[in-house]
Structures are given as C-alpha cells and as structure tokens.
Amino acid sequence: MKSLWRFLPVGVFVLLAVFLYLGLGRDAEHIDSPLLEKPLPVFALPDLSDPDRLRTQEDFKGAATLLNVWATWCISCRVEHPFLVRIAREQGVRIVGLNYKDDGTAATTWLQERGDPYAFTIVDADGRLGLDLGVYGAPETYLLDAHGVIRYKHVGVIDERVWVDILQPQWKRWQSPGGQP
Predict the structure, then answer these.
(1) All domains of the chain, ordered by start, with CATH?
(2) Over the stretch 52-98, which tens digit does the pLDDT of each residue have?
C-alpha cells in the first residue's frame, strides 16, 4: 500500500500533463457559438449616432457584414481599431459596431478621434444583445451572410493575419445574397 502512495504524485502529474498537452492543440481565437448557421437574434437597440433610431436584425440583410463587439474600456479594441478602419476604407468591408456595456459619450468621442469604420453602431449599454450572442468579452467579431445568418465567430483582435487567413475568405464567400457554402 505504501508503494502505491509513492506513485500517486507521478500519476497526478501524468494526468495533468495529458490535459495540458491536449489543450495546446486548441485554437484560443475560435470559440464555437450555438448561433452558427442561425439568424441574428431579434433585437431593437438605438444607433449611437442617432439614438432615436432603433436598429434591428433586419438592418443586417443585403450584404455580408462583420459585427464587431467593441468598447472604449477594451484595451485590445485599441489595437484592433486601426485595422478595422483600414479594411472598411480600402476594401469596402461592411462593418457594424456593437458598442458593448460602454458609455455613449466616450464611444462617440472614440470614433471621432480614431476614425469610424462602422456603417452604423448599435448601443448595447446593458449587454443584453451581447448576452444573446454569447459574447465572452470584447473584441469579438461575427460574420453574417447577406441574409443576416451568423456564419463565423472570431474571439480576439482582428489583424492582418486573421483577416487574410480566416475572415477575408469567409467574407468573400458570403458577400452576395446568393452566397452559399
């Protein structure tokens, strides 16, 4: 019995090593969403630049769209933002902002100072739409096809590598209303 107790720490170590090894193969930027292949949840939230105008899931129909979850309190969003401005201007990518649990005045100032890559920005002050989408935090980006169906979810910063290797091919694929897998 005493010899079994000596091997217990080794057994625990081996078990932990196996779990850690298996975790290394996972892509931390890709988190499956239960909403993939489903329409954007139903919502009615104000537009940041025109608070009297309510935006809904219907505003996402007609063109492939990146729905970018961001906030002024998000450090990673500061890193991502210049790249979003660039692809919106240079490549004509339709990006809609979801300002998540943020101060509207701070968000407006942010866009005025840093550039506004968004076709429009939805104000999700209480995080309800974010909750419905399964948002873990900011930044997160959802790719919607021209019918408003969620086709891909990216967690983390969008940079040149992520855009070229992952999102741009998906965006091109779903760009037209007839876009199919």
Answers:
(1) 30-173 (3.40.30.10)
(2) 999 999 999 999 999 999 999 999 999 999 999 999 999 999 999 99
